[in-house]
Fold this protein.
Amino acid sequence: MQLYVDSANLADIRAAAALGCISGVTTNPSLLAKEDPTLDIKELILDIHRTIGGHVSVEVVSTDTDGMLREADAILEWFPDATIKIPFIPAGLSAVRNLANRDIPTNVTLLFTANQAVIAANAGATYVSVFLGRLDDISTDGVQAVRDTCEIWDVHGYESQIIAASIRNPLHLLECAKAGAHIATVPYKVLLQSMKHPLTDSGLKSFLDDHAKMMTAKGA
Ligand code: G3P
């Protein structure tokens, strides 16, 4: 399972990129709205792209197919390997089909069921983003939606890559990996939480203390 960072915060993306384990970034209008409103969106996206050097999903905000396609073309002028993130609405599916026919990668977002993911895959989506956390928020098992999608992918061999999105904690990440999601897009905070283990910290402290004792004994 590949790891993306779900963020538009350049400092977090820089820190995550430095870890060497991140293959991409997913953004959305809400993540962008959390950043400094004086920042130019195009320049911020280009900075993110330069920083991560891999997949960057950029979401359209039009709700009609022509508007989405116009936005997609503008984003592709910013950088030609952009992945166009499109909401799962009928107009979005038409846009996905149009872009797929031109070999332009798309990430269909706001998927909450495996059925929606199957429909997006049939429209030609390169990526299908299944949201977990927001399902949990309404007392529905979000991980199950990812499990269902992965099970169907195993049966039918769809080519679209499954992105587990709306991940809120390390257990979500673990369960998505076990389910077989191709990619998990995680907030930087959840990435750090998933790295943390007290035995790693105490083990390193012991190694360093023992090394220091040995050097002292040697008179170094
Ligand atoms: O990329 C979109 C998705 O990950 C949103 O997450 O936490 O706002 O539900 P959240």
Summary: Residues 177 and 195 are 15 Å apart (CA to CA).
